[in-house]
Amino acid sequence: MSDATIEVSGLRKRFGPTVALDGMTFTVTPGTVTGFVGPNGAGKSTTIRVILGLDAPDEGHALIGGRPYAQLPHPLHHVGALVDAAALQPSRTGRNHLLWLAHSQGMSAGPVDAAIELVGLGSAARRKAGGYSLGMRQRLGIAAAMLGAPRMIIMDEPFNGMDPEGIIWMRGLLRSLAAEGRAILVSSHLMGELQGIADHVVVVGRGRVLADARVEDLVARASGDQVRLRTSAPADAAAALHRSATAATVTDAHTVTVSGVPAQRVVEILSQAGVPFSEVTTHRATLEDVYLQLTSSETEYQAGTLHREARR
Ligand SMILES: Nc1ncnc2c1ncn2[C@@H]1O[C@H](COP(=O)(O)OP(=O)(O)OP(=O)(O)O)[C@@H](O)[C@H]1O
């Protein structure tokens, strides 16, 4: 195994009667951004805490570059983590917070200013961190995670509290860190946040993995072979498609949904039959569609379902 791989294997953990982890298993490989997604209570934070040695599992193990966190000689050099951006001493300046962290790990002050620069906190670095917005605290947390130039990075809900500009910046940062060969694990309860940045997603519910796949493959699978056709003669279009043994349903006065054949074949059939049409589009699912399909029966709380319905 590469020394920049995060491996989670068969994790089980209960908190009293609550099963938080129920056989959680996945791997984060170097050079990829792996999204770790699931509804509230799915077990994401507990998994991350176990990886970082902050919680002990009842069963299973988590390895960072082949070793448990507790056995890493200088952890910040192996893995950088953003877990709780609020966890800082409010009366310290951002820079002093980073200096304190660096010294506690036997590092010089050298990497501190580079990390401040990397996260764009230069102008605020000498202000008390207690006055930072949540987005600034997230940036400070990321600077802390980057201090030891780690090859593995774990971020729990890094987009929380970030404004749109911060989100764009964060996306670019994660992509460039992965392009440098780092293994990156990013949790989120919003699948949409990961579209365009995650190469791979691990979707979880009730403490176990529901899907572990490349984003491209998941989206292709959820999209099916569906083509949407706009036409002024939907009944004629459906009849022509049926004559060619193609499944087609009139969806409304101007639309027919066709299944099982590519858009090009739909165009051929309609042209041969002389049926007019104005638009033929291949349906492509979003990552959010995939997520909703996978987690529809996995939300811990009914309110979670209502929340999702409300957003649609
Ligand atoms: N310290 C704890 N004591 C008791 N129950 C806990 C504790 N930590 C987590 N749990 C429970 O374990 C389950 C998994 O929680 P966890 O925080 O890992 O989920 P999550 O996917 O990170 O959710 P969220 O998106 O809400 O942060 C939940 O039912 C939660 O209530």
Automatic annotation (TrEMBL):
Residues 6-231 form the ABC transporter domain. Keywords: ATP-binding, Nucleotide-binding, Transport. GO terms for molecular function: ATP binding. Pfam families: ABC_tran. The keyword Manganese does not apply. SUPFAM superfamilies: P-loop containing nucleoside triphosphate hydrolases. Belongs to the ABC transporter superfamily. This is ATP-binding cassette domain-containing protein. It comes from Actinoallomurus liliacearum.
